[in-house]
Each structure stands twice: as C-alpha cells, then as structure tokens.
Design a protein that fits this description.
The chain has 200 residues and is of the alpha+beta class. The chain has a single domain, classed as Chorismate lyase, CATH 3.40.1410. It has five helices and seven strands. Strands 1, 2, 3, 4, 5, 6 and 7 form a seven-stranded antiparallel sheet that branches.
Length: 200
C-alpha cells in the first residue's frame, strides 16, 4: 500500500521550461516542441481529423494550474476536455481551463465551441497572445493521466500500458482574460505519418 506522501507525489508534476528535462522518446519530441497550431499539424498527419468534446463545465482547477492562471489557490474555472482524433484514433487528450472572472469579451467563442477546434480559434485571432511552452511527465496517478485513460476506456480503446505520459501546456491571453491549454500526447500519436505539407 502506497504512503500518503507517495500518493500526493503521483498526483503532482513539475513543469519544465525545456523538453530535454523530460527525457522523452526522441520520436515524441517534435510533437512536444512544434510551434504553431497542433490542430494543423495533426491534420497534416491524417486523412480525417475530428475534435470529440468530452465535456465543458464548471470545475475545480488542478493544484499546479491555479497560480499560472492568476488564482491564489485552486478554485472554480470553466473546464473543457476533448480528444483529438486522427483517422478516428484518439491521439491527444486536451484539457483547457479559463478563470471564472473571464468575460465573453475576453473569449467570445469559448462557450460555443462544441466540437470545433480551440486551436484553430486561438491561432486565427490576432488579439490572442501565446505564452511559452512548458513540458511535463505525467505519472499514472496524475489527474490528467487518469482522465486520459478513462476517456480511452470509454471509447473501448486499448488501455494505456505506459506508466508515464508526456504533456505540454501553454498560457494564452486575450484582452484581460487568460486561458491555459494542456495537451497530453497519447501513444497512438507516434503511429501518425505525414500526409501532406503546408506547401500544397
């Protein structure tokens, strides 16, 4: 039986400013560090791309998210979680939080996204300012690793065999609002092959 301190350590992670600190598989590093829209990159590596919205609701942010989005302690946020699917296979679990203080003027399309891509919205808006990427190894006890595994289970996908998942996150600002996007890369992303280039 694990001790309480060990359980707490599994639920937390240290976000790093450089991908080399993760010791991630070399084949995954281009996905972690790629600039621009992840949606566009996934579309380039598949015949069909789809956003599957798992939920969008009021929730409590994770302990390592509060300070980043300007909260003194973990509190209520707007939360959106989706699976990004390439050729119907889930390849990325994405988790977004927006402080309750944000207004419709800050993020005018967020509440009505549905199955549309948030990334396309963010990168298509000249008022959005993108922060720097941070990277993390998520152990199986981390909430986002658990949610990703649960989402795959509900989809009748093969259970995750990896004890560690790799993730990145980025803070976006628009007007007075902040929005934090965390992207957890699922094992199937490594099976993707580039289908077309941006030059086509």
């Amino acid at each position: 039986m694990s001790s309480p301190s060990r359980g707490a350590s599994l639920r937390q992670t240290q976000w790093q400013p450089h991908v080399l600190a993760l010791n991630a598989p070399p084949s995954l590093r281009p996905w972690l560090t790629a600039g621009g829209s992840l949606t566009a990159r996934l579309k380039d590596h598949s015949q069909t791309f789809r956003v599957q919205c798992l939920h969008q609701r009021v929730a409590r942010c994770l302990s390592d998210e509060a300070a980043v989005i300007g909260l003194h302690r973990p509190g209520r946020v707007w939360e959106r979680e989706v699976l990004l699917r390439c050729d119907n296979r889930p390849v990325v679990f994405a988790h977004t939080v927006v402080p309750m203080s944000a207004t419709a003027a800050d993020w005018p399309l967020f509440s009505a996204l549905g199955e549309r891509s948030l990334g396309t919205t963010l990168f298509g808006d000249p008022q959005v300012r993108r922060g720097v990427l941070e990277f993390a190894r998520l152990r199986e006890g981390h909430p986002l690793a658990q949610r990703a595994a649960a989402a795959l289970f509900r989809e009748n996908e093969a259970p995750l065999q990896e004890r560690i998942l790799y993730a990145r996150r980025c803070l976006y600002r628009r007007r007075r609002g902040t929005l934090l996007v965390t992207e957890v890369f699922l094992p199937a992303v490594l099976d993707l092959k580039q289908q077309r280039s941006h030059n086509e």
